[in-house]
Amino acid sequence: MTDKPDLDALRSEVRAFLAAEAPAEWRDTSRTQEDFVRTQRDWFGKLVKAGYAIPHWPAAFPGGGRSLAEQKVIYEELAKADCPRLLLSFVSTYHAFATLHECASTEQQERYLPRILEGETWCQGFSEPGAGSDLAAIKTRAERKGDVYVVNGQKVWSTMAQVADKCLLLVRTSSDGPKQAGITYLLMDMQASGVTVRPIHQIQGDEEFAEIFLDNVEIPVSERVGEEGKGWAVAQATLASERGLTLMELSYRMRGALSRVAELIRDHEHEEDRGVLRDFGHLVTQVDAVCAIADQFLDNRINGIERVGDASIVKNSYSRALRAYSKLGLRLGGVEEQYIAPITFGDLNTGNWMADFMNSYAWTIAGGSEEVQRNIIAERMLDMPREPKAWVA
Amino acid sequence: MIELNELTDAAQKAFPAEALSPGRDDSWRLVTEMGWLIVRLPENAGGLGLGREASTAIHFEMGRVLATTPLIPAQLGLQAVLASSMAGRSEWVERLAGGAYAPLHLLPAALEAAGDGTLSGTIGGVFDADMAAAVVAKLPGGYALVPVNAAGVTVHERPIWDASRRLFDVVLDGYEADPALMLTDAASASALHDTLACEAHLALAADCLGAANAALDLTVEYMKMRRQFDRPIAMFQALKHRAADMKTQVAVAEALLWSGVRDAQAPVTACAAAKTLAAEVFAFVTEEAIQLHGGIGLTEEHPIHRFMKRAMLNLQLCGSPDLWNERVGREALALR
Q1: Structural domain boundaries enclosing B61
Q2: How far is the C-alpha of A122 from the C-alpha of A159, rounded, in Å?
Q3: How many A-B residue pairs are in contact by the CB < 8 A criterion?
Q4: Residue B104 domain-assigned?
Q5: Which residue among A86, B38, B182, B300 is the one 20 to 30 A from B141 at the CA level?
Q6: In A, which residues are within 8 Å of B237 by CB distance?
């Protein structure tokens, strides 16, 4: 497929920038949480300056106003150049942006959007111990007292909450009526009194997520997005903020990372092992197919012909390919991969296949589990009936 | 330029989904009339001059109805003749465009040349040789038309489980190749082979995915209708999740197929990878489909078994998954 001339121009422009500015040794400078955060902040700053950090924002912002086709070009080039993914600023530039842009007051937008470009980071306070796939079951309470809400409860799975400045917070202001109806959306300062963050040690030794404990935290009413009790609709805007670009970028990165599997095959002298070659060929095809569907999904969005459920298909096929990729690497790497080695934070390629394999679970569980996606595909694409709601223990 | 959806609509009208595996001879007349034999033939050679997308859309629809008519080997045979420098080329092109049948074989030929140059052995994987005028076969001296009524040529049908198709061995016993019917010499045979292989793989992938979609549709429909424990079985997550996985795999294989179709430079391994994935997905979908149909899926009273039988044959055509996965792996290793 050939791009339009303006896209070609953008592509060369991005390539030239990346040739000069892409951080070369970023994996070596992302081996501790501290280093990772510093590397991420540096790279985000450079991309903001160059005008490639927020292509999906409105044109009023420098580097904004890019079409989806242009965004695709930028992400393709970032993936091909093997640059760090913008993980630390992801919630800020996508989730916080979409929420503020679509649902917040002008005053809130003017206060927070410019600060994101200066490096202020956001986290998401949605999930709770009792509200995962069933998000509307949240129990964190907010009681209005004069000009503030007093919030008590617990949030979990908040990405990078330990370094975040602000939090997109879902709270319950009423227990009457359907569970979606009593939810309110607040913007919380992570430095506020009563906020405690406890990082979660993941099975691969990362601390990508954290728990947030809220103990009589006072949040001004002026920090509410939308009306009281109408937070569920705002949350939908947050969750719908990023559909497609990330998975396309990740699929392309996985295709690039197949060279790591090829390296293992050579290092272990499997070049003539037909079984290994078959497994590798099968994986190559699976990854190519995921790239093809991620690409097609974005093209359909660009052309306005996306269908309900398409995103679920892309997510489930990516996460299964990632599992297969990391499992083949783990198998071929042998016992060496069982020794703990320094790993790169926040990368498809941590440098250790065991860690990569464990990381792959993030994609079948987080962001709407594989099973939730299957329900969407079955019920909304194949028109199969939902299970009855009532359940008596 | 005919739009793809017009072709698809026309195909669905001519071959409605309710009528699985319509009669072969009537179907052959119909595809001839509709110009599908010559869909890829350039306009200056009397064809429709359409590209890969058009033939892919047609093969997809033919897979959907488990077509009995051997359109894929016919188109490939015609392409081979067209690519040749044979003296009688235009007469043959005209004959084949008009409905004469010269299929390309889709399984290997095992032939030996005797001291006098005559050939003996078997050309495998010839569809519907009973209606063929000749077979386009890869002989030791290059691609050639082998007339089925020539001296030293016999055809043997070998009954197959897939009732939607008929497969023959063309057996040569001291056959003397006619120099006037040679399509290539030995040296240029591999270039033609690569061209035909790409087309064959993409066409078969489309056949697989059209049929996989139909099998999935039938299964989903059955799951919504079949009631147990006072509810449609489609309501059970344990079952609906399997349908969701079938849908997911079909969609992914389709995306790879179309990316291959639209890339004129796609190498043989890329086209073969698309076919391998499509055939594996088709097989997976039909295996699941029979299980999800329960007892009725094991009977001839329900058509779902026919899809599984076609899937298992498709896996073996133009090289098995083992063969191609290994080649794809080998090539990817060399490139990375």
Answers
A1: 4-97
A2: 9
A3: 136
A4: no
A5: B38
A6: 371, 374-375, 387
Picking from A206, A230, A254, the residue at the C-terminal end of a domain is A230
Q: Do B277 and A387 touch (CB under 8 A)?
A: no
Separation between Cα atoms, residue A173 and residue B81, nearest integer Å: 76
A249 and A375 together in one domain: yes
pLDDT by position in tens, chain A (length 393): 445 778 999 999 999 999 999 988 888 888 888 899 999 999 999 999 999 999 999 999 999 999 988 998 998 899 888 899 898 999 999 999 999 999 999 999 999 999 999 999 999 999 999 998 899 999 999 999 999 999 999 999 999 999 999 999 999 999 998 999 999 999 999 999 999 999 998 887 778 899 999 999 999 999 999 999 999 999 998 988 777 888 988 999 999 899 999 999 999 999 999 999 999 999 999 999 999 999 999 999 889 999 999 999 999 999 999 999 999 999 999 999 999 888 887 777 888 999 999 999 989 998 889 999 999 999 999 999 998 887 777
**A262 and A370 fall within a common domain:** yes
Tell me which residue range forms the domain holding A56.
Answer: 5-88
For residue A313, list chain B residues with Cβ-Cβ distance below 8 A.
247-248, 251-252
Angle in degrees, CA A261, A266, A267, rounded to 5: 95
Nearest to A203 by CA among A37, A32, A89, A343: A343
Integer-rounded Cα Rg, in Å, for chain B is: 21
On whether residue B102 sits in a domain, the answer given is no
Q: Is B4 on the interface with A (CB under 8 A)?
A: no
Which residues of chain A does B241 touch, with a Cβ-Cβ cutoff of 8 Å? Answer: 371, 374-375, 378
Are A384 and B322 in contact (CB < 8 Å)? no
The reply to whether A365 and A277 lie within a common domain is yes
- Domain CATH number, residue A330: 1.20.140.10
Chain A positions touching B255 (Cβ under 8 A) are 289, 292-293, 295-296
Closest among A319, A287, A338, A383 to B243, alpha carbons compared? A383
Domain count, chain A: 3
Looking at the structure, tell me whether residues A271 and A351 fall in a common domain: yes
Q: Does residue B194 sit in the same domain as residue B328?
A: yes
Cβ contact B256–A279 (<8 Å)? no
In a domain, A74, yes or no: yes
CA distance B61 to B145: 29
Rounded Cα gap, residues B228 and B249, in angstroms? 27
Contact between A362 and A314 (Cβ < 8 Å):
no
Does A296 contact B241 at a Cβ distance shorter than 8 Å?
no
Interface residue B186 vs chain A (CB under 8 A): no
Residues 65-124 of A with CB under 8 A from B: none
Find the CB nearest A378 among B244, B249, B253.
B244
The CB density around residue A194, as the number of other CB atoms within 10 Å, is 14
